[in-house]
Amino acid sequence: MLKLKQLLGLSALSLALASAQAQADKIVFAIGGTPQSLQGQTAQEFTRRLQARLGDEHQVELYDSGQLGNEQQLVQKLRLGTIDLAAISSIMSSIDPQFALFDMPFLVKDRAHLKRIDQNIIMKDLADSAETKGLHIVSTWENGFRQITNNVRPIDKPEDLDGLKIRTPKSEWRTKMFKAWGANPTPMAFSEVFVALQTGVVDGQENPLSNINGAKFQEVQDYLSLTNHVYSPIWLTAGKGGWQKLPEDVRTAVTEVAAETQGWALAKGEELDQKLVGTMRDAGMQINKADRDAFVKASAPIYQAYAERVDGGQALVDRAMALAEE
Ligand code: EAX
User: Fold this and answer.
1) Angle at alpha carbon of residue 274, lines to 210 and 192, rounded to 5°
2) Which of 37, 89, 184, 305 lies at a CB distance of 3.0 to 4.6 Å from 234, suitable for a disulfide?
3) CB 292 within 8 A of CB 78
4) Distance of CA 12 to CAs 17, 99, 113, Å?
5) Rounded CA separation 269/264 (Å)
6) How does pLDDT run across 174-203, given as a tens digit for each residue?
7) pLDDT of residue 128
8) What's the rounded mean pLDDT across residues 109-126?
9) Of the candidates 106, 94, 109, 117, which has an alpha carbon nearest to the alpha carbon of residue 299?
10) How far is it, in rounded angstroms, from Cα 196 to Cα 168?
11) CA 234 to ligand 1 centroid distance, Å
């Protein structure tokens, strides 16, 4: 930068050029999650690694906790090009119904399975489909296996959800799922959930343990029911136009560093899932393991709706399931 200024002298032109250059050098990355959540920790790890790789010429700026907007607003900003990167999770299925594959309960068996789905389906079919919606999927990271918390009773079977007001992300498919199980789903942005739980606007919510812990929901929830009902990936995403405007070496660095960070995120996710059950117990929550078979049985209508409503939906489910066993 300095060299450029020295060459041109401090004319208005050089200042204008320098300032345009300074803007282009900033990489703005935003997430909805808290710094303590897995997505928050992963975003920090990625930012640190990317900054080290790019050096002083670029400045990677991370904004967490929805400071630049909730996930829905972040998608708009990616499309407008006002931010460069964002981590987008559950609401992806509202943008592109194919992504509701990850709202099919109990589809993802474990993280090894997820990795196979990532290589064979996400980075091929789903990434192509996202491009047609103006988004470039850079990499698949982890939001995590989702669990249910509430203040009324332990959830063992779907019947236990009967009439409970459960906050879900603004995802049509997650709403459908909780309706099929008998709950009264209430979609809202993540940043509003703590107060909604605290004031009793909703009885409960569903999220991975690291999001629950990151937002301290254990302070305002009595029951934790381990359902593992959905595995939410989180996608490191760019706007299609914005991505093409980034210099090629930056795109390569972002892609490679993001891919490296995937391994880190999945390992961290596994570690946190083990550790945080104890944290929740220590916080005074009553914990139970839900009846998986009962939930699987009650989930058939969701798979059916996906097959009927989403082009090629059944084929995606079949391919994903076939990847369960290596
Ligand atoms: O940042 O809204 C949610 O519950 C999602 O898990 C979101 O990614 C949290």
Assistant:
1) 15
2) 89
3) no
4) 9, 48, 57
5) 9
6) 999 999 999 999 999 999 999 999 999 999
7) 97
8) 97
9) 106
10) 12
11) 9
Phi and psi at residue 215, in whole multiples of 5°?
-105, 5
Query: What is the rounded radius of gyration, in angstroms, for the C-alpha atoms of the chain?
Result: 21
How much distance in Å is there from the Cα of 46 to the middle of ligand 1?
Answer: 19
3-state class (DSSP) for residue 3: helix
- In this prediction, residue 325 carries a pLDDT of 87
Helix 313-322 × helix 300-309 angle, to 10°: 130
**pLDDT in the model for residue 274:** 95
Instruction: Write phi, then psi, for 95 (nearest 5 degrees).
Output: -90, -40
Spatial neighbors of 158 by CB under 8 A, at least 6 apart, are 180, 181, 182, 294, 295, 298
* Each residue's pLDDT tens digit, 135-186: 999 999 999 999 999 999 999 999 999 999 999 999 889 999 999 999 999 9
Measure the CA–CA gap between 100 and 108, rounded to whole angstroms: 13
Report residue 164 as tokens: 């409970």
Taken in order 87, 93, 99, 105, is the CA torsion positive or negative? positive
d(CA 100, CA 70): 19
Q: What is the maximum alpha-carbon separation in the chain? A: 74
Q: Which atom of ligand 1 is nearest to the CA of 66?
A: 1
Instruction: Tell me which DSSP letter residue 312 carries.
Output: T
Pocket of ligand 1 (CB under 6 A): 32-33, 89-90, 143, 169, 190, 207, 211, 232
pLDDT of residue 326: 79
pTM of the model: 0.89
Of the candidates 94, 93, 95, 87, the one whose C-alpha atom is nearest the C-alpha of residue 34 is 87
Ligand 1 atom with the smallest distance to the CA of 87 is: 8
Q: Is the pLDDT of residue 50 over 70?
A: yes
Residue 211's closest CA among 37, 35, 32? 37
Amino acid at 293: D
